[in-house]
Amino acid sequence: MSAQPESIGAGKSVDRVDAAPQIEYKMVTHDSLSMFLAAIGGAVLGMLLTLLVLALVNGGTLSFSGPRITQLEEYVGRVNENLGAVSANIDLVSEQAATLQQQLGSVEEALRGELENQGSSIETLNSSVETLNVTRQQFGLFMNALDSALADMQAIDPNAVTAETPGATTDSTAAEATTAETAVEETAGEAAPTDEGAPAEAADETTVLPAPQSMASSDVPADAIAVVIFVDNNSDGALSEGETNLIGIPVSLLNSDGESLATQESSDAGVLFSALDPGSYEVTVDDTMGYSLLSESSASVALGEEATEGMVVYIPVAAE
User: Which of 69, 90, 113, 278 is 20 to 30 A distant from 211 in Cα terms?
Assistant: First the structure.
């Protein structure tokens, strides 16, 4: 009796073990089916939402053909045409810019050539003006020399020249000469006081000329002396604007002992005696070439040992 309950208990435990795996399999199967149905439902819902959005975009219909698409295609075509026109305009502007750049280069080259030609013309004109100034001064020298020669010819007394005649005229001329000599001897004593007073009166009438102006100049080297002979139009003794230098006037440089060191002729820039030792010098005009000096013809100049500037002597002449 005691052995049966144990066998019955053992059989019940075996039935319970067999039933447990069947319940677990049913639960897994039910979950997989639910997930599959949920996935299908989500896909359908997503497709419906997509169709709804497309319908809203397409004016409430899902049909993508008809006037709407035609208008869109026309609009896209016009945009494409506009883009093509803009591109063509850009190309045209680029070509015009390149052409304009080439034209500017040609204009620049032409302007440079014109400026060079004008520079050459100006240089030629300056040379012509300098040549004309030299010619004018040379003509002035010639006219002064001619005036001086005419003045000397007019100063000759024609009564002092006696023409010789043949025959009896010679005897009468000798008699007249003897009479003239006698008259001169008789009046010599009376005329003597007058002759003694004449030099004093002539001395009073002589005009005393001022000394030439001399000054230091940074434009002249410290060991040099420059001499400027110019036409003094305003008679102030100083070189003013518009007054020109004389050309061809000989000027000499003397040392303190009166010995001649150098002689030069004046040019447009005057006369320059350079490479001189410190000391006293004298510059003098050897020949005025017919011009009238407005100052003395010579001037004393001193060069200092520590001088940093040279000396310039201005000698004015009267205007024609």
Answer: 278
Would you tell me how many other CB atoms lie within 10 Å of the CB of residue 237?
16
Strand positions, DSSP E, the chain: 213-217, 225-232, 250-254, 260-265, 271-273, 279-285, 298-303, 310-318
Domain membership of residue 152 (yes or no) is no
pLDDT in tens, 221-238: 999 999 999 999 888 888
The CATH number of the domain holding residue 262 is 2.60.40.10
What tokens appear for 268 in the block?
A: 């447009």
Per-residue pLDDT of 258-282, as tens digits, reads 999 999 999 888 999 999 999 999 9
Number of domain units in the chain: 1
Residue 165 has pLDDT above 50, yes or no: no
Residue-wise burial string across 294-318, b where 16 or more C-beta atoms lie within 10 A, e elsewhere: bbeebbebebeeeeeebbbbbbbbe
At 8 the three-state DSSP class reads: helix
Residue 152 tokens read as: 């000397």
